[in-house]
């Protein structure tokens, strides 16, 4: 069973600083990983797919990297509106098995 | 746009039926699947299953025996039916549009969710 482990569970960062969220897979994913942002009371929003491709309308301060089993979402120049829970998600398995990581809460100090 | 609708409150052993209305895009668009994802209160996201406009479905292994999904192209909506619900099925249920990839052998590989509904809370309690 494929498992996605996100770390840290919570990240507290000052405005203007950078933050990095990690996602580790129990087996290789190649580049088949997406990232989502979920603000309180809202549905998730797609940020990144193919590990590093920004979705339509996503600011350039959000970037994704990694391949294989180690991935990262980096937010540079954090803004107050970036306070949210971030999830990674894997895809392209057969038969289809879409798995989410446990989430990382990013707080603005 | 997507918008979920459903009963809100169910008793254990009842059947959950949810509908997702699709507007601003064709549910018959051959480039997308239509998916359900749920989120128990205070917890993470769980993929439930996905359906194509022609009725092709893929389900989570953990729910496969209780789950059925369908599409009604004339009404521009797709639906979820989950039988024998328990308290463990209490969650915020989201519908979403899903990208996919077709390989050279014609297999459909489900991918990411690029548009989501606001979600509908389903509570199972006696």
Main β-sheet of chain B, in a few words? Answer: 7 strands, mixed
Distance between the termini of chain A: 37 Å
Fraction in helix of chain A: under 10%
Indicate the mean pLDDT of chain B. 96
Report the sheet with the most strands of chain A, covering strand number, pairing sense and barrel closure: 7 strands, mixed
Give the overall average pLDDT of chain A. 95
Distance between the termini of chain B: 34 Å
The helix/strand class of chain A is mainly beta
Unreliable spans of chain B: none
Largest interface, chains and sizes: A-B, 25 and 24 residues
The dominant shape of chain A is globular
Tell me the radius of gyration of chain B.
14 Å
Query: Which structural class best describes the helix and strand composition of chain B?
Result: mainly beta
Q: What portion of residues of chain A belong to β-strands? A: over 45%
| Spans of at least 5 consecutive residues with low confidence of chain A | none
| H and E order of chain B | EEEEEEEEEEE
Helix content of chain B: under 10%
- N to C succession of SSEs of chain A: EEEEEEEEEEE
Query: What characteristic shape of chain B results from the CA principal axes?
Result: globular
What fraction of the residues of chain B are assigned to beta strands by DSSP? over 45%
User: Count of helical segments of chain A?
Assistant: 0
């Amino acid at each position: 069973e494929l498992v996605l482990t996100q770390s840290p569970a919570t990240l507290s960062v000052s405005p203007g600083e950078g933050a990095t969220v990690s996602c580790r897979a129990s087996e290789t994913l190649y580049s088949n990983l997406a990232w989502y942002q979920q603000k309180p009371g809202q549905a998730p929003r797609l940020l990144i797919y193919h590990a590093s491709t920004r979705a339509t309308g996503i600011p350039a301060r959000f970037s994704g990297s990694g391949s294989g089993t180690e991935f990262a979402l980096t937010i540079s120049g954090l803004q107050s509106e970036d306070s949210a829970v971030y999830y990674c998600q894997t895809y392209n398995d057969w038969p289809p098995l879409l798995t989410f990581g446990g989430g990382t809460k990013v707080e603005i100090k | 746009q997507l918008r979920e609708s459903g009963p809100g409150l169910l008793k254990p052993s009842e059947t959950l039926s949810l509908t997702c209305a699709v507007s601003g895009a064709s549910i018959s668009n051959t480039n997308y699947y239509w998916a359900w994802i749920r989120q128990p209160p205070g917890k993470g996201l769980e993929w439930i299953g996905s359906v194509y406009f022609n009725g092709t479905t893929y389900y989570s292994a953990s729910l496969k025996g209780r789950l059925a999904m369908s599409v009604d192209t004339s009404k521009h909506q797709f639906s979820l039916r989950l039988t024998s619900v328990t308290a463990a099925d209490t969650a915020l249920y989201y519908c979403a549009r899903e990208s996919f990839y077709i390989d050279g052998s014609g297999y459909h590989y489900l991918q990411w969710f690029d548009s989501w509904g606001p979600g509908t809370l389903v509570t199972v309690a006696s």
